[in-house]
Amino acid sequence: MHNSQNPEVALGPAITAAATMMQDIGGKLLVFLSGLPSYGLGRLQNRENPALLGKPQESSLLQPQSEYYKHWAVKMAQF
Q1: CB neighbours (10 Å) of residue 45?
Q2: Cα–Cα distance measured from residue 34 to residue 32, given in angstroms and rounded to the nearest whole number
Q3: What is the pLDDT at residue 62?
Q4: pLDDT per residue over 8-64, tens digit each?
Q5: Alpha-helical segments (H) within 1-79
Q6: Contact 14, 69 (CB under 8 A)
Q7: What CA dihedral angle connects 31, 43, 14 and 78, to 10 degrees?
Q8: Given CA atoms 54, 57, 63, 66 in this order, what sign does their dihedral have?
Q9: In this predicted structure, what is the pLDDT of residue 1?
C-alpha cells in the first residue's frame, strides 16, 4: 500500500460491493473516510467556497451533488 500511485478515495465501488454481499444476508455497513470520495462511481468534488459564506448562494452548497448515495441508502434500507 505504501507504493500506491493513486491516493484517490473510491467509496462508490466499495459500497456497491458491500451491497451486493449484503443483499441476501442483511447487515449493517459502517463507512469511515479520510477524504472526499473522488474516484470512480459516486465521486464528489470539493465545493467549499468561502466567498459564498453568509450569502444567499451558500444554501447551494448544502444540496447533494448526485443521487448516488441516496440511491444506495434507500436500497440498502430494504435489506
Answers
A1: 7
A2: 7
A3: 87
A4: 889 999 999 999 999 889 889 999 998 899 999 999 999 888 899 899 988 888 889
A5: 11-22, 68-77
A6: no
A7: 70
A8: negative
A9: 60
pLDDT of the residue at 78: 82
Please, what sign has the CA dihedral across residues 49, 50, 51, 54? positive
Torsion, Cα 4 8 9 12, to 10 degrees, reads -110
Q: What is the dihedral of CA 76, 42, 14, 5, to 10 degrees?
A: -170
pLDDT of residue 32: 93
Distance CA 77, CA 37 (A): 22
Q: Which residues contact 4 (CB under 8 A, 6 or more apart)?
A: none
> All 3 cell numbers of residue 78?
430494504
pTM of the shown model:
0.72
State the amino acid at position 23 in one-letter form. Answer: Q
